[in-house]
């Protein structure tokens, strides 16, 4: 059997972080078994299903590098097939026309509420002939659900879950306007697409009982089900807007790497011993449904940042430049020229151990590209008092005579200067850092001087010679 999984989001304008994890689990399970990972856009809600919303979903999946097999399927475009199956169940005696009016059903619900009963359809048209229908009423098609016994879900995460069939009413399959309901469409699509494993959030578990009844009515073999607990906020409450970023693209905009998000989302509800850092190759090799926990997972933004710092250190320098340059250019309000990109590339090794996000990297690197004279932050300005400016002026004279402009050579000049003046190295290096970067935090300052080059270093030191 070829394993076939699917991710079937509703287009809401972005890929939710929970949806991203669901897609990842499906993708990994398919990859683990050499199967297929399919994408279906459940776009039957025409008011919300704009092309822009669909594009946002596809963009989020592409950024996570969760590539699907074949073309994305539109559920709306399959509505005729869904209706065909409803009519087939009607012909086989597993469904029936219901002519109850909206007013009747509302009165039924109010009566049930008043008696403290669950609100459900009472099957009033289950055994009646359409000839009894009131004139001009367009019927819906309802499933003739079993009224005795139980429906059982053998779930790969939740275990065996059972519901008595008396608790399930005859759900609508086809509305009076001929459009299919979500529960029917999902079953038909999963069957027709050959889906073998449905891995989704446990908020769909109650739907599964009804969907199994459709499978049984059609004589189809249902897929295996695995219902994954939802993601909660850091406070343990259900994830909501007040917890911050809910969309995958928000994490991209905050400077997270896709491999970070794959690793973090994998560990958000799935485990492999004590392993925290798990490469994508390892994830494909190790992933199984048995490793998914039954309890909701909590977002931990600090852990996510620390994980991102690891992957930044592991990333190729050229890739980091390519990913971070858009952040830099946005902050500068202009494009980098080739020489600046080269300067940026040479600075990356100094930044790697110091940053947790690409945004931090971009912020830290701005001094490389800003026009002179550099703006000084408060701490940098405090470093450049009259005494420090005088020392830098003398140091600049020594730099001017230096022909071997390397970090090591610059460092030696500074050390010799400090020693000759009876100064600690930091008393010279920190004002130099302030002059060259406008800040008191940067990569190693002697490396910075080498990256800036002799002329730019001397020019920046000249800028602060006489104070602000």
From TrEMBL:
Enzyme Commission number(s): 6.1.1.17
Any GO MF annotation of the entry: tRNA binding
UniProt superkingdom: Bacteria
InterPro entries in alphabetical order: aa-tRNA-synth_I_cd-bd (IPR045462), aa-tRNA-synth_I_codon-bd_sub2 (IPR020751), aa-tRNA-synth_I_CS (IPR001412), aa_tRNA-synth_I_cd-bd_sf (IPR008925), Glu-tRNA-ligase_bac/mito (IPR004527), Glu/Gln-tRNA-synth (IPR000924), Glu/Gln-tRNA-synth_Ib_cat-dom (IPR020058), GluQ/Sye (IPR049940)
Residue ranges of domain Glutamyl/glutaminyl-tRNA synthetase class Ib catalytic in the record: 3-304
Protein family: Belongs to the class-I aminoacyl-tRNA synthetase family. Glutamate--tRNA ligase type 1 subfamily.
Name assigned to this protein: Glutamate--tRNA ligase
Originating species: Aerophototrophica crusticola
